[in-house]
UniProtKB/TrEMBL annotation:
Ranges where the AB hydrolase-1 domain occurs: 39-275
Protein name in UniProt: Alpha/beta hydrolase
Any matching Pfam family: Abhydrolase_6
One GO MF term attached to the UniProt entry: hydrolase activity
Species: Streptomyces catenulae
Assigned keywords, A-Z: Hydrolase
Amino acid sequence: MVRRIEVTGAGGVRLAAWEFTDPPKSDGGPEDGERRPGVLLLHGLMGRASHWADTARWLGARHRAVALDQRGHGRSEKPADGPFDRASYVEDAIAAIEQLGLAPVTLVGHAMGALTAWQLAARRPDLVGALVICDMRASALGAASQREWADWFATWPLPFATLADVRRWFGEEDPSLERPRPVRGAFFAEVMAERADGWRPVFSRRQMLTARETWVTDAHWEELAEVRCPTLVVRGQDGELGRAEAQEMVRVLPGGSYAEIPDAGHLLPWEHPDAWQRAVEPFLRTAIPG
């Protein structure tokens, strides 16, 4: 079962959240009427809450799983003037946790959502019981990376005539691809909406660059070291987070552990959902018993 929930974020920004629940299982999970531990799922830049549907469904057997459309994304508000800074994203997630009564929450974040998650855990340890970081670097990427993104956005052949064209371009024809990735095409098809002239993204590319600019040139090691809850760092073998940096992140984290998924890229939870579940589920059973 899926239901939409409204959350009021920082500065009154309207946020959409989605709660996924399954009937209780007979495997030691919560019984009917028993409070389930809360999980908040945070997508990455350009993502949306619905991307977490499969993950949220297996989490829902033991947890109260909620996925948030972050500001500027999905069905949440996209204020013309922002702000899209790090503090706003963190405060929005705090608002969701507090308004939905999820604490002590497990935060599961992908890419930018993972950064939001560990910044929140460092700032409000009272709200967070465990953390899963999926393919997000703690090191600065530099100004050149931001220029590359701006150039990449300019290559998008908008509008797309059909969703099939979206899937094909992002999965096969995108000049940034080294090899075809059909899952990537499906991922981007989910963030498109039909307009009068064709299919366009549900987000503003200008706002995405603004949001990215607030974290891409900074390193985030100090905040990572302030995280005190059990934390799992997950990377794909071909993802953006390198093995050496991921293992250094685990070393810096007081309660860090590590998982790697072979033959997976940046979108590892969607490329290899079974391997993703095998990596995350045992960690959560240990970190959040009951």
